[in-house]
Design goal:
One of its GO terms (cellular component) is cytoplasm. This protein is of the alpha/beta class. It has seven helices and seven strands, in the order ββββααααβαβαβα.
């Protein structure tokens, strides 16, 4: 399988029953895939619809409804990276925050791990079992100052808004 990453770089994967897979990064470089497994997870080329949706989301609010496995989280991470310059600053200095809502606790954990892995931003995760419903406004202010991306279960975020902590 060959895929172009840029005009000057091609990635090929080879598999042989007698040898471990190798990845040829250029004509002069061969790397054992087992040694860079986690890096392979990072090298993803977006599909055209993912790029189009990310570009559109930069200019307007979107609700993206796509099937499972179609790359919604990847679109979100591309957008987070694109807008990272607006969330790196502290809130006191005018920095913004990214709020990511997930339907279940398992998804809060999965999405926060994915965002943390694919960005260099500080990511917080919040769901009821963590006792966040007992936090006062001061604690929430600290959380928003400490984290640039905050991943919530929908109910915890609703409670936060209902209490005017946001």
């Amino acid at each position: 399988m060959r895929r172009a990453l840029s005009p000057s770089t091609m990635v090929s994967t080879f598999s042989s029953p007698a040898k471990r897979p190798k990845m040829v990064v250029s004509r002069n470089t061969t790397v054992n895939i087992d040694r860079i497994h986690s890096e392979l997870d990072v090298v993803t080329i977006p599909r055209s619809y993912q790029t189009e949706l990310m570009e559109q989301a930069k200019h307007e609010n979107l609700i993206i409804c796509l099937p499972t496995g179609s790359g919604k989280t990847y679109i979100a991470v591309m957008l987070i990276k694109e807008m990272a310059h607006t969330i790196r600053a502290s809130i006191r200095d005018g920095g913004k925050r990214t709020i990511f809502l997930a339907k279940t606790v398992a998804l809060v954990q999965q999405q926060s791990d994915y965002i943390r892995f694919h960005t260099d931003l500080s990511v917080g995760k919040y769901y009821g079992e963590l006792g966040v419903d007992l936090w006062q406004k001061e604690r929430w202010v600290d959380e928003f100052e400490q984290h640039q991306v905050l991943v919530f279960s929908a109910q915890v975020f609703l409670n936060l808004v209902d209490h005017n902590y946001f």
